[in-house]
Amino acid sequence: STSALKYRRILLKLSGEALMGREDYGIDPEVLFRLAREIQEVNRAGVQVGVVIGGGNIFRGAGLAAAGMDRVTGDHMGMLATVMNALAMQDALEKIGSYARTMSALKINEVCEDFIRRRAIRHLEKGRIAIFAAGTGNPFFTTDSAAALRAVEVGAELMLKATKVDGVYDKDPKKHADATRYEKLTYEDVITRDLKVMDTAAIALCRDYDIPLRIYDMSRSGDLMRIVQGEPIGTLVHN
Ligand code: UDP
Question: Is 194 annotated as a binding residue?
Fold first, then answer.
């Protein structure tokens, strides 16, 4: 595309569930490659892309704890699940001809690089897609918090949360026909109205360090490109 870019460096958060597609566990290769091509498209247009992927399609600490496992062990398994998803996305991006580097918050040096901030920024500047794996590296956090943290650390101009819904609604659009989508919200609105956008730690980081967040529907091809060109797709959350 020849349209001007509004954003030069973004942080894209993909949930693990996003990778499942129509499966009920694991990774649907069709969805994986479609998302990879969308990331490649914006990257080739000149956008520096950092990606954080969740692990909910494989393991979540809270779910494992509910089934009786030690919570911290469950969170370790959840973080390792994000590494597997990151490796799958790295592979898909490279299969289609892009350059990607997985950087993990937990050391697994035989498998991928560690997250080192200055090296991450270097990858981005070189046009490589940096995939930030293992969340924050700490239990009791989520990959939304990891995404907010990495967005602040690498100086992303926009954080994107790709979901199954095309933004934030005043009530659940699947249950209420009259639900209306917000085009814009402030972080203050999100907190006072207790809107389920991201967990509070993630919201607090984005608010305190002034990272705007756009929530959009990942199933709509081309929306990622339109967003980086400045189109008001989904819901924008800002200060
Ligand atoms: N997790 C963690 N610390 C982090 C990020 C993630 O312990 O900083 C664990 C946690 O158990 C979480 C799991 O990894 O449930 C998978 O991440 P998340 O639930 O955020 O994935 P998503 O919902 O985006 O698929």
Answer: no
Whole-model pTM: value is 0.97
Q: Write down the CATH number for the domain with range 9-134+151-238.
A: 3.40.1160.10
**Span from the CA of 23 to the centroid of ligand 1 (angstroms):** 20
What stretches in the chain show pLDDT beneath 70? 1-2
Residue of the CA atom closest to atom 14 of ligand 1: 78
Domain map (residue ranges) of the chain: 9-134+151-238
Ligand 1 pocket: which of 69, 136, 143, 205 to mutate (most atoms within 8 A of CB): 143
Distance CA 151, CA 12 (A): 9
pLDDT of residue 2: 53
16 is in an annotated binding site: yes
Is residue 17 within 6 Å of ligand 1 at its C-beta?
A: yes
CA distances (Å), origin 188, targets 63, 183, 238? 30, 15, 9
Task: Indicate the helix (H) or strand (E) that contains 114.
Answer: strand 113-114
